[in-house]
C-alpha cells in the first residue's frame, strides 16, 4: 500500500509542478508533511541532499523520500511517479511543438505560469529559510542563537559568490565544509 501511496503522491507532484524542482518544494513539503513521512527539518535536509547530488532535483527528491519511507522499492515507486507525467507530456508535445509555439492560448498560459512559478520558488525559500534559521520557531531569542548566526554566515558565504557567478559546485563544497566545521566546533548541527 505504501508503494502505491508514494507513486500516487509523486505522480500528483510531477503532474502539477511547472517550473522545475524548486517550484515543487512547497507541494513536496505539503504532501510529505500530510502523510507524516518526514518532519520539516528532514524536508530541509532532503532539499540539501537533493540539490547537492548529481541529477534533476525532482528525481533526487522523490528518490530520497521514497528510500527514507519504504526502502528501494519506495524509491523506485516515488521516482517513477514524479517522472511519468513529464515523460508523457513531452511525448505528446513533441509531435506538435510548432503549433504550441504559435498558439495564443499556450503563450497566454505560459505568461501566467511564469510569475506563479517564481512565487512558488519564493514560498519555498521562505519556508525552508524559516526552518534553517529558526528551527525552534521565529522569536527574538532565536536571533541570539548560534544556529541563527552560523546559518547566516553560511548563507552569506554562499550568496555572495553565487551573485558573482562562482561555480555552484565550489559553493556547495565550501558550504558543506563550513557546516561540518560549525557542527564540529559548536556541537549544534
Spans of at least 5 consecutive residues whose pLDDT stays below 50 are none
Radius of gyration: 19 Å
User: How many separate domains make up the residues?
Assistant: 2
Helix content: over 70%
Measured distance between first and last alpha carbons:
35 Å
Average pLDDT taken over every residue? 83
The tally of helices reads: 8
Explain what the structure shows:
The chain is mostly helical. It folds into 2 domains: 2-133, no CATH class; 135-189. The protein is built from 8 helices and no strands. The chain has helices at 2-15, 21-35, 40-52, 57-94, 97-102, 104-133, 146-163, 168-186. Helix 1 (2-15) crosses helix 4 and helix 3 (40-52) packs across helix 4 (57-94). It is globular, with a radius of gyration of 19 Å. The protein starts with a helix and ends with a helix. The mean pLDDT is 83.
Concise description?
The chain is mainly α.
How is the topology of this model organized?
Layout (H helix, E strand, L loop, with lengths): L1 H14 L5 H15 L4 H13 L4 H38 L2 H6 L1 H30 L12 H18 L4 H19 L3
Helix pairs in contact: 1-2, 1-4, 2-6, 3-4, 7-8
Identify the notable features of this structure and list them briefly.
single chain; 189 residues; mainly alpha; 2 domains; 81% helix; globular
Amino acid at each position: 500500500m505504501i508503494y502505491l501511496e508514494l507513486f500516487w503522491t509523486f505522480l500528483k507532484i510531477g503532474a502539477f509542478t511547472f517550473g522545475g524542482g524548486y517550484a515543487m518544494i512547497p507541494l513536496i513539503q505539503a504532501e510529505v508533511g500530510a502523510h507524516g513521512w518526514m518532519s520539516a527539518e528532514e524536508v530541509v535536509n532532503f532539499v540539501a541532499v537533493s540539490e547537492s547530488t548529481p541529477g534533476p532535483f525532482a528525481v533526487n527528491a522523490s528518490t530520497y523520500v521514497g528510500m527514507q519511507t519504504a526502502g528501494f522499492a519506495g524509491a523506485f515507486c516515488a521516482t517513477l511517479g514524479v517522472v511519468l507525467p513529464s515523460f508523457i507530456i513531452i511525448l505528446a508535445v513533441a509531435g506538435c511543438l510548432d503549433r504550441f509555439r504559435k498558439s495564443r492560448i499556450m503563450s497566454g498560459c505560459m505568461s501566467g505560469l511564469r510569475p506563479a512559478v517564481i512565487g512558488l520558488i519564493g514560498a519555498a525559500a521562505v519556508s525552508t529559510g524559516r526552518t534553517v534559521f529558526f528551527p525552534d520557531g521565529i522569536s527574538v531569542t532565536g536571533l541570539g542563537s548560534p544556529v541563527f548566526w552560523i546559518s547566516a554566515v553560511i548563507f552569506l558565504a554562499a550568496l555572495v559568490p553565487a551573485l558573482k557567478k562562482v561555480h555552484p559546485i565550489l559553493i556547495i563544497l565550501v558550504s558543506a565544509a563550513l557546516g561540518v566545521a560549525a557542527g564540529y566546533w559548536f556541537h549544534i548541527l
